[in-house]
Amino acid sequence: MILPLDDNAITRAADLICAGQLVAVPTETVYGLAADATSGEAVARIYAAKGRPSFNPLIVHVASLAQAETLAELSPVARRLAEIFWPGPLTMVLPLREGSPVSPLVTAGLTTLALRIPAHLAMQALIAASGRPLAAPSANASGRISATRAEHVAVSLGDRVPLILDAGQTRHGLESTIVAVDADRLRLLRPGPIDADRLSGIAGLPTMAGGDGKIEAPGQLSSHYAPGKPLRLNATEARIGEWLIGFGAIAGDDSLSPSGDLIEAAARLFETLHRADATDKAAIAIAPIPDDGLGLAINDRLRRAAAPR
Ligand code: TXA
Ligand code: MG
User: Fold this and answer.
1) Model pLDDT, residue 51
2) Best of 23, 27, 91 for a ligand 1 pocket test (most atoms within 8 Å of beta carbon)
3) Stretch among 10-14, 63-67, 182-186 having the lowest mean pLDDT
4) Taking 50 as the threshold, does the pLDDT of residue 34 lie above it?
5) Is the CB of 147 under 6 A from ligand 1?
6) Cα of 249 to ligand 2 centre, how many Å?
7) Are residues 120 and 237 in the same domain?
8) 57 ligand 1 Cβ < 6 A
9) Do residues 95 and 27 share a domain?
């Protein structure tokens, strides 16, 4: 069932959450597949619905800094980043607080927790109405394109989710930036709408790339965000049987941004891939995207979408 976002929809969604069920809910980045983070059974339903490998832990969404502090330990640097960037598209990986009520299934056994306060009324209202911290990965089948519209969720997860809250297209269209906050540095686990330089500036710490070789974020899975068809990168023209996604001067069959605007391209990325997947062409090609600013996050997603599976 898809319901437009209003008070009635939030009440029904909160009832489902409190009963241990799943609800797909928009955030400012992508749609999330939410469940009560304190219930192992509810969290298990997320993994089942997504078909997600269980080593891939989930982000927990909270409504306030005070609620965050009940789940994880925030160092002074983490608190400072939270004050500046929350609510917003920043996820911090922090030490799990002793006695934290979060189900171990959320962290897949790690002693750290990925946390954020989302800047979207729907997710904030659902956390408040249910009174629970919400575990929510992106609302798509594991490894596939993230959902930026309610219809994408319906296509990807169908009847595996009892309720989808619909608030139209999401603002950023790309998942949150993920950083692990260590004592002497930040580690960028997934590039996103907030860039690493800004984080370093505020934290007064250097930002290193990636984890340490072991899987910490989806970023580390080489095939992810994959459309159902092969995807060729840096294409300046379509080959036979290809649907070309353009950018800037390369027009294509569709375009991420005719004017070459990276913010527009990020917001449209997953939607454009969904559309390309639905055409009768056998393959997808995409024009080069400049590798700076938000282009770094876009190219990160595209490389994984194009990787051999
Ligand atoms: O924008 C977003 O972040 C969206 C919306 C719904 O909030 N959520 C999202 O969740 O993208 P998901 O599950 O698709 O990606 C979260 C990634 C996981 O793939 C996981 O690898 C990483 O965050 N992660 C979660 N907990 C972690 C931890 N304790 N340490 C390192 N990485 C972690
Ligand atoms: Mg995801």
Assistant:
1) 80
2) 91
3) 182-186
4) yes
5) no
6) 30
7) no
8) yes
9) yes
- Give me Rg for the CA atoms of the chain: 19
- Structure confidence by residue, pLDDT tens digits, 159-192: 899 999 999 999 999 999 999 999 899 999 999 9
* Cα 133 to averaged position of ligand 2 atoms, centre (Å): 19
Task: Compute the 3-state secondary structure of the chain and give helix, strand, coil in percent, each to the nearest 5.
Answer: 35, 20, 45
**Alpha helices for 141-245 (secondary structure H):** 150-157, 196-203
Domain with 270, as residue range(s), is 231-306
Q: What is the pLDDT of residues 220-250, one digit of tens each?
A: 556 777 888 999 999 999 999 999 999 999 9
**172 CA to centre of ligand 1 in angstroms:** 16
The helix-helix angle for 196-203 and 76-85 (nearest 10°) equals: 130
Where does a domain end: 159, 177, 209?
209
Q: Is residue 225 part of a domain?
A: no
* In the chain, % of residues over pLDDT 90: 73
Read off the pTM: 0.84
Confidence of residue 18 (pLDDT cuts 50, 70, 90): very high
What torsion do the CA atoms of 32, 35, 38, 44 make, to the nearest 10 degrees? -100
Q: How far is the CA of 114 from the centre of ligand 1 (A)?
A: 7
Identify which of 178, 223, 269, 304 to mutate to test ligand 1's pocket (most ligand atoms within 8 A of the CB): 178
Same domain, 239 and 177: no
91 alpha carbon, closest ligand: 1
The finding on whether 177 has its CB within 6 A of some atom of ligand 1 is: no
Residues 112 and 248 both lie in one domain: no
